Amino acid sequence: MRAFWIAFLFLLLGPVGCSLIAQRAGGQTHWRQARWASAGLAPDPSVHPEAIVQVYAARTWGWKSAFAVHSWIVVKEEGAAEYERFEVVGWGVGRGLPAVRRNLRPADGFWAGNPPEIVGEKRGPEAAALIPRIKATIAAYPWPDSYLTWPGPNSNTFVAHVLRAVPELGVELPPTAIGKDYLGANLLAPMPSGTGWQLSFLGLLGIGVAREEGLEVNLLGLVVGLDPADLAIKLPGLGRLAIPLANGGCGGETVGS
């Protein structure tokens, strides 16, 4: 039994330690001096007049970056000159500010110096049909004035809530999106991609199975999993790692995603 718990802690915390070392080695300036400008990922509205929906994720600030990403969603209606960015942040919530913010940063901005990645998007008529539902879901978000880094509700809880309500988006959030499994008082819900189901107790303990996510086990908010479709494993801190194939290739790698 002792060997089991040692192996369990190594599996759960070992990857987090590796991620923490990597993040610290990279160095970080104070968040006020960090880069928040556009990363150049969002299509130029003047060149792309079609409706666009994108979901982004970037490593969080400070020591939390070893564990988690911050995610947000942006929409651009057909013919619109600008994007609208929606997310949840904790800054100022204790002073009465809402947790849900609109256009806090550029649509595809760096997050405290960390580069964002697009984890899912829709364009054209399909996106145009989904945007009203996305905005209605944001307006009905059940924790508009609450923020808790761990286990939630937080930024990833917010995006996961939108994805569950609009499953046509078909977006799989990174395993490092801590808080995505927070369901409040509910125990059963669709996985964020809408392609399977999960059981979760306050985002602290749970299990989920879906076509997109594969198998995920949530232990104290940290995800361990296996995605057979993409030949990948999921580890705390490190995120999704490709499983090398016998011929020396790999099934695709999105480290830290």
Label this structure with key terms.
257 residues; alpha+beta; seven-stranded antiparallel β-sheet; five-stranded antiparallel β-sheet; 3 helices
What does this structure look like?
The chain has 257 residues and is α+β, with helices and mostly antiparallel strands. It has one domain (8-242). It is 20% helix and 26% strand. The protein is built from three helices and twelve strands; from the N terminus they run H-E-E-E-E-E-H-H-E-E-E-E-E-E-E. The strands form two sheets. It has a seven-stranded antiparallel beta sheet. A five-stranded antiparallel beta sheet has the order 4-3-2-1-5. Helix 2 (125-139) crosses helix 3. Residues 248-255 have low confidence and may be disordered.
Rg, nearest Å: 18 Å
- Give the proportion of residues in helices: 10-25%
End-to-end C-alpha gap: 33 Å
Low-confidence stretches: 248-255
* Average pLDDT taken over every residue: 88
Reported for the largest beta sheet, the result is: 7 strands, antiparallel
Strand order of the largest sheet: 6-7-8-9-10-11-12
Number of helices: 3
Note the overall shape.
globular
**In total, how many beta strands?**
12
Give the SSE order as H and E letters.
Answer: HEEEEEHHEEEEEEE
Structurally, the number of domains stands at 1
SS strand fraction: 25-35%
Estimated structural class: alpha+beta
Strand-helix topology:
Blueprint: H1 2-26, E1 52-59, E2 69-76, E3 84-88, E4 100-102, E5 117-123, H2 125-139, H3 155-165, E6 188-190, E7 196-201, E8 205-210, E9 214-219, E10 222-227, E11 232-235, E12 239-242
Antiparallel strand pairs: 1-2, 1-5, 2-3, 3-4, 6-7, 7-8, 8-9, 9-10, 10-11, 11-12
Helix pairs in contact: 2-3
